[in-house]
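User: Show me a protein chain along with its predicted structure.
Assistant: Here is one chain, sequence first, then structure tokens.
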Amino acid sequence: MTMAIDDMLRTYPADLGRVDRDQLRRCIEECMVCAQACTACADSCLSEEQVADLAKCVRTDLDCADICEATARVLSRHTGYDANVTRAQLMACATVCKACAEECERHATTHEHCRVCAEACRRCERACDDLLASLG
């Protein structure tokens, strides 16, 4: 995945400006990984015996997956770039990743998939925060 992201950033025909390509690549990658982890965690929660106890986790997982996927797409588009939109999307993504990590951490000792998902969410949250900070 990293190679494809790097290749697409490298071959973009216009100047990306002051954006740190490594942080941008890392954020896109972490968003995609987090979306997959959240989708899989929600599915795993639905397979647990006490699924009713995991309803909020499923909901938070799916919200996080949707926002992470949207963030990766927004970050992959550079033509007509609007810094305000990008900042808002990154803030939303960091916020939902934090909420999802906190929810999954509540179940992490009982459900391994929640522990794995929480870790992916924390990495994505950090990547969004780091990219945001670099945008100024």
